[in-house]
Amino acid sequence: MSWQAYTDNLVATGKIDKAALYSGAGDSLWAQSSNFQLGQDEISAIAKGYSDPSNLQAHGLHVQGQKYFLLRADERSIYGKQDAEGIVAVKTKQAILIAHYPAGVVAGEATTVVEKLADYLISVNY
């Protein structure tokens, strides 16, 4: 399966409206939804946030120029929320999945979809 198929499958769930897949270091884009372009500073901040979340805690999570309130930041998952929308970013062994869920989607449903895909990628050593 191509990397693009993974982002397309996330969007196809109806729980996610935009998704991207980056290398684990955040320095290489592997796949993305057509309407989901992150700045290099945004993906770098997310990639660094897995080992040191202090910058995200102090300044918030920024995606597509939008600031999200940081809900969680640990070595695996980073979650952010802005009004009724949110961001779910999950690190696997070699990749970072980043997904946006729109208003009307329950945060827990969106995070479950992204975390399950991350679990699968980890199980196949990605």
From TrEMBL:
It is found in: Cytoplasm, Cytoskeleton. One of its GO terms (molecular function) is actin monomer binding. GO terms for cellular component: cell cortex; cytoskeleton; cytosol. Its main location: cytoplasm. It comes from Hyphopichia burtonii NRRL Y-1933. Keywords: Actin-binding, Cytoplasm, Cytoskeleton. Occurs in many kinds of cells as a complex with monomeric actin in a 1:1 ratio. It holds the Pfam family Profilin. Belongs to the profilin family. Binds to actin and affects the structure of the cytoskeleton. At high concentrations, profilin prevents the polymerization of actin, whereas it enhances it at low concentrations. GO terms for biological process: mitotic actomyosin contractile ring assembly; positive regulation of formin-nucleated actin cable assembly. SMART domains: PROF. This is Profilin.
